[in-house]
Specification:
Strand content: under 5%
Helix content: 55-70%
CATH topology: Four Helix Bundle (Hemerythrin (Met), subunit A)
Largest sheet: none
Mean pLDDT: 92
Order of helices and strands: HHH
Shape: globular
Radius of gyration: 14 Å
CATH class: Mainly Alpha
Bound molecules: zinc ion
CATH superfamily: DksA, coiled-coil domain
Structural class: mainly alpha
Length: 69
């Protein structure tokens, strides 16, 4: 197992977890609702990023914070 394989494996595991969580939200009826501000995530964004849990502005804010940290 090379280091590259480890990275790929971790990415796939993350993706798989994100998809499972998205399915769980569909079952709960909370799919497409921003987890930070509670607004509806635009359909176009969900089509582009089906596992998105944040609206564009909350995502940008979070990434801004992450960059600052
Ligand atoms: Zn939001």
């Amino acid at each position: 197992m090379t280091q590259h394989d480890e990275v790929v494996k971790r990415r796939l595991a993350d993706k798989s977890r994100a998809l499972a969580e998205a399915l769980e939200r569909v079952r709960e009826g909370t799919y497409g609702i921003c987890q930070a501000c509670g607004c509806r995530i635009p359909r176009r964004r969900l089509e582009a990023v089906p596992t998105a849990t944040l609206c564009v502005s909350c995502q940008a804010q979070r990434e801004g914070v992450a960059h600052a940290a």
